[in-house]
Amino acid sequence: MRHSHAMNDKNNNAKAPIATSAHEEEHPNIVNDQEALKDQSSDTSHGQMTSLDPSYILVMRLTAFIWALLLSIPIFIGDAILADAGHIKIFVISAPISLILLIMVFILPRRRYKRWGYDMGEKQIQIVRGYLFFTDTIVPFSRVQHIDIAQGPILRIFGLSRLILHTAGTHNSTVILPGLKREIAEEIRDTIRQYIKADML
Amino acid sequence: MDAEITNDDSIDTIIDSEKLHLSPRSLIASTLLTIRSSILPLAAAIFTFGRGSASTYIWIAIPILLVIILFTWLAWKRFTYQIGTEEIRIESGILSRNARSIPYERIQDVSVEQKLISRLLGIASVKFETGGGEGDEGKLNYVTLDNAEELRQLVRTRKAAPSQENIQTTIENETVEDTEDKIIFAMDVKRIFTLGMFNFSLVLFAVITGLLQQFDFLLPFTLEEVIETFVDKADENGFMQGFDQGFNIVTGLFGAIGGIIIVIIIGLLSGQVQTFLREYGYTLTQTDRGIRRRRGLLTLTDVVMPLHRVQAAIIQTGPIRKRFGWQALKFTSLGTDTGKESSHMIAPLAKHEEYWPITKRASISPPAESLKFKHSHISYVAPAVFITLIFILVTLSNLIFSYADAIFYWIALVGIIPFAAALLSWTYHFHALDNDQIYVKSGFWNRKLTILPMVKVQSIDIAQGPLSQLLGVADMKFGIAGGSGFSALTIHNIPLTIAHNIRKKSIDKAKNIDFSDMIKAPKGS
Q1: A43 and A69 share a domain?
Q2: Are residues A33 and A66 in the same domain?
Q3: Bigger pLDDT: B15 or B35?
């Protein structure tokens, strides 16, 4: 019961962006860069989009950290070998790469998290993501083929899941929404499932 | 588990049965299959590393076998499925868990498969296919044969119950199958010859030279030997030394021109051969089940494509054939065409008065005369400008450090090519939309007009790179069922607000029609 209540709240929130886009349609000819920029920033703000669970930042950080560790060990060894042979000065390769990896572990996860968001519409789900490369996807519920709720070991530690929507499209055949509390992922799944059923009858 | 905790009545009705395990006999089958697939690499490993006694092999084999059994058992233990009233739910994974829900409504096909091992054990694998892109959307490896049959029946009845019309249409179609087919498009020999002229191809040339190189051991002489003997003979007769410098250039030029002419002739010939082999006797007929295409000289292919499964139309042409008014019509459809084509060829070489009536049969209408096609934002060429800039910077830095080598000017010139190409393809990239359809034109050499009815949209992305975010432009990518995944229909670099408007309009059309209804045969077609 508690979950469905939360769901209703979300549905109320969802009405806001739809209203704005309806407003946009009244002036389809406005092609102003400033306007467009404003529109984009409002798209990603927390006001309209539902954020992922905050602990997902830690998940991203942890995943990035594991990758960084796996990548940096061979690089440091290679760096040491080359320096030892007198080809380069020590840390010439590993220092800039370490810097990039540090950014990926400590700075990027929070920024990427801020860009992640979703919005449950009445008959569609909107998912936004990406920091450098920003993508904003809408999938109508009526186009969902089947739904996965997946959970890797790291996500499990934080009690999070990944919702995966499968469509028949060859582009976007899977649309992924990570970092959701298990209950919320299940609610979204059941909402979409209900819609497929409701339309059938 | 969580679904049981939630006492919401709507959710309760979805799952009505307990979690079922696969047949324990599948443990044997899976173990055997894993052993079978790992035996070759193992043998290879032993062959390269080991020269041990038989007992060493056994000591290696036993722990490997135990690990295989352990993981097979774990995977079995962690794999459950539920047969609900509305959906099938499959949970799987040892470390990474996955819970999949497949609504009956979306299941297109249930197949029961038995291979040798499963037949011996009396078990079968059951596959559920939805219209999704991947193929096997749900697979039960394995359940007992009785269970498999039961499952198939159950899915069929649950799926069929709410939509009686589905069965009716198929019966209806069977009764009227006999009516005579109406020819809607055909190509005579002259048309195929014309098509062959455009299909200039060096495939045959490549195949012949490739074959000669592959199988030259079968010939009594090799290519090199032939050339060498020719050169030697020429040398002996004093040909090579005999020519003075100027004469040599002239012969070289004639040789080059002759070579080019030969290559062109071979290209044209192999184009003709390929085209005639594939397209001979091309006829398109309208049947009750859809459009039927027959073609081929040696291997005759016969394909029926249901019109209601058509997702988009592609009208393709090139700069030269455009001058003659020739175009090709393809349909993107659910289910792939024979061969590796990503979309179904409908009319390889046709004039507009021939192909528009065909698209209309698939409820796709031509763009209205008044429809205005719009250009993309010029930032479309930005990535190419970036590449060109790098080339120019390289040249400049070389000038500054005074390695004034002529080759660097050439490099700078080469750097212009991507920019020119991008500018050219920007010139030919347009989009337009009316109330029902989206039109996208692209390509200079391979000119395409894609017409996508809005109701067929599966998903829409609005994507922005760093520069696009600065400029407030975006790419729109459309998910379409069928076709190839590599070339998603994209409108590049349009103002963000416009992208949002196009998307809203399309999604509003698409969201009210369920996919399952979309691919169902219309009543009384």
Answers
A1: no
A2: no
A3: B35
Which of A33, A152, A168 lies at the smallest CB-CB distance from B471?
Answer: A33
Q: Give per-residue pLDDT as tens, B343-386.
A: 788 999 999 999 999 999 999 999 999 999 999 999 999 999 99
Same domain, A7 and A106: no
pLDDT at A117: 95
Other beta carbons within 10 angstroms of residue B39's beta carbon come to 10
Residue of A nearest to B101 (CA): A147
Residues of B with CB below 8 A from A135's CB? 461-464
The mean pLDDT of B402-409, rounded to a whole number, is 65
Q: Which residue in the block uniquely carries the two structure tokens 């050219």? A: B424
Confidence of residue B185 (pLDDT cuts 50, 70, 90): very high
Instruction: Please give the residue range of the domain that contains residue A102.
Output: 56-112
Count of structural domains within chain A: 2
Mean pLDDT of B143-162: 81
Question: How many residue contacts between A and B have a Cβ separation below 8 Å?
Answer: 223
Fold exhibited by the domain B2-162: PH-domain like (2.30.29)
Decide: B488 and B440 in contact? Cβ < 8 Å: no
By CA distance, what is B311's nearest residue in A?
A: A169
Residue of B385, B442, B386, B389 whose CA lies nearest to B419:
B385
Scan for tokens 């774990």, then name that residue.
B74
Do the Cβ atoms of B458 and A156 come within 8 Å?
Answer: no
Instruction: Compute the residue count for chain B.
Output: 525
